Amino acid sequence: MDELGLPAMVLAGLLGIFVILEWNEATQGFAILVGILIGVIGGIYVLDPLASTDLSAFPDWGREILRRVVDPGIGAFLTALGGIGIVSGGSYGIFDSLF
Fold it and tell me: Is the pTM of this model over 0.85?
């Protein structure tokens, strides 16, 4: 997850700066987009922890063993959960201002 973990953290950091500076409909919409992206990144690694790993050097039976043994880890679950939380916050902000 190293290749996509850093961009997810950078996006979350940028979102945090925007939210601190001003929480309006533009930042709420940005939060929804960033949250979806971060949630998808986390979801990919929850479903397949070896998603960005080059397994071509392993024989077929070795790839199958790796896929069964490797655990996505708490970081992938927290990334997906964080994406859901960000989408929820942005959505709440937009819908709260409408009503």
Answer: no
